[in-house]
Amino acid sequence: MPTSVEFRIQFEVAALSLRGARCSPPNMTCSIKPIAVFLLPVLAACTPTSTSSEMAQPWRSAGPIHPIETDQGETNPAIRGVWQSRGYGRLLRIDEAGVAKFEIGETCYRPPISGEALSAMDSVSYRYFRILPGGDSAIFQLLRGDTNVVFDRLDTLPEGCTEDPVATPRAVAEAFLDAFDRHYAFFDRRLPDHSTRAARVRAAIRPDMSQAELWDALAGYMQSLSDSHTKLIGTVGGERRRVQDGQGTTLPRMRAANGGETAWLVGLIDTTMQKLGDSALHTGNDRIVWGLIDGRIGYIQVFQMGGFTDRQDFGSEAWAAAEIEEFDRIMDEAMITFADAEVESVILDLSNNRGGWDKIAKAIPARFTDEPYVGFTTVTRGSGLSPFPHMIEPASGPRFSGPVYLLTSDVTVSGGELATLALRQNPRVVHAGGVTRGSFSTPLAKRLPNGWLLELSNEVFAAPDGSVYEESGIAPQVPLAVYPADAPVEGHWRAVETLVTMIDTH
């Protein structure tokens, strides 16, 4: 393990094998059982019963998945043409030369290409497609199994779409406001509403205003939005700037403390490794710590949903395969160790999980179930589609089928909250700790006409019963102070010890 001086951990997603397993009692299993009877009504509710239902659930009738471009950089002839998304404000022009992306709303423009990605979501593009019956619509995805974004084929590029966007203060502000008006999904939870915020921006816009003044006007729109997935990133006067609200209570406090966030994280991991003793492993490119508590209780802490390898090709097929393989390797080893120790309970610590790749967020609960179930649903504002049910399929590798104690806090966000939401559907999981952050949506990244990047929340994640926890966060069943202000390092392990006591008394 690195020393406190050497330790450096990155919690931003970079830009973000099936193995033989031996299982033993009491709570390990390697076989996938049939769907439980109690799940049949849930799955039946997702079954289309009419043509209109099929149209609202196009993923059920879509053809096989294909890459948009070959390894040689050639586009698939079947997908060439002009395509407009439902609900994302995207327009793609695909020809022999490649894929050109346009932002479309009140205006249509091809955003300026700086050659530099401003965020993880800004660095990725659609890589795969599935043609829908008739060929006039298709599902586009960033990665295999990713969000189903439906595009419709157009005869030609709409009139007014330009390769050279107008970047006056008024044009930039209106593109910014139009994106929020069309796509932001949570003004009912994060007041004031769009019109109030927009009026404030428009009152500040002048033709001769500086870039710094324009930035301040747009930043004012986002004031008190309290959404960590909504941000503005750009360069003003040679200086990189970023506006992002909704960081909760713990993170701002620790970043302002002596030593900052790094010292706090180092202290947390040093303490955890010490408490786990010889069984402790700090692995997965510093993203996972696991071991045994007193040789009898399994412990796994996951800091991020991805970034387990050193690969820099974020979003590529090779990156995805390497990430899953390394995650599976770590989880296989942990589960086999727990089986050999005959642990009866596992503490799953997501109290410092900063999110990441949704596939990992679903792979975690997959290690703690023997039955497939719906973990959560997603729907995008303006898409016209039904909520998409995300199934949690039992992992093919070794799994744990005993009691699980889940620990969260207000640091737990994004993919950490998706895993929490899915785990809460498992009756063997006890959720303890603090309320999660309340920021679920995958950020919709949109380049403004002047090259600044806007990210906003346009997807609604919900529990299978329809409950939405955006802004409010998911409240635990057993409230515990995880990072108290007077002991943000020691308090964490005290919370873990409280769970140990709960396990011992049950």
From TrEMBL:
| SMART domains referenced in this protein's UniProt entry, alphabetically | TSPc
**Originating organism:** Qipengyuania xiapuensis
Q: Where is the Tail specific protease domain?
A: 285-481
Q: What is this protein called?
A: S41 family peptidase
Gene3D superfamilies, per database record: 2-enoyl-CoA Hydratase, Chain A, domain 1, 3.30.750.44
Highest taxon above the source species: Bacteria
Lineage in the entry?
A: Bacteria, Pseudomonadati, Pseudomonadota, Alphaproteobacteria, Sphingomonadales
Q: Which InterPro entries match?
A: ClpP/crotonase-like_dom_sf, Tail-specific_protease
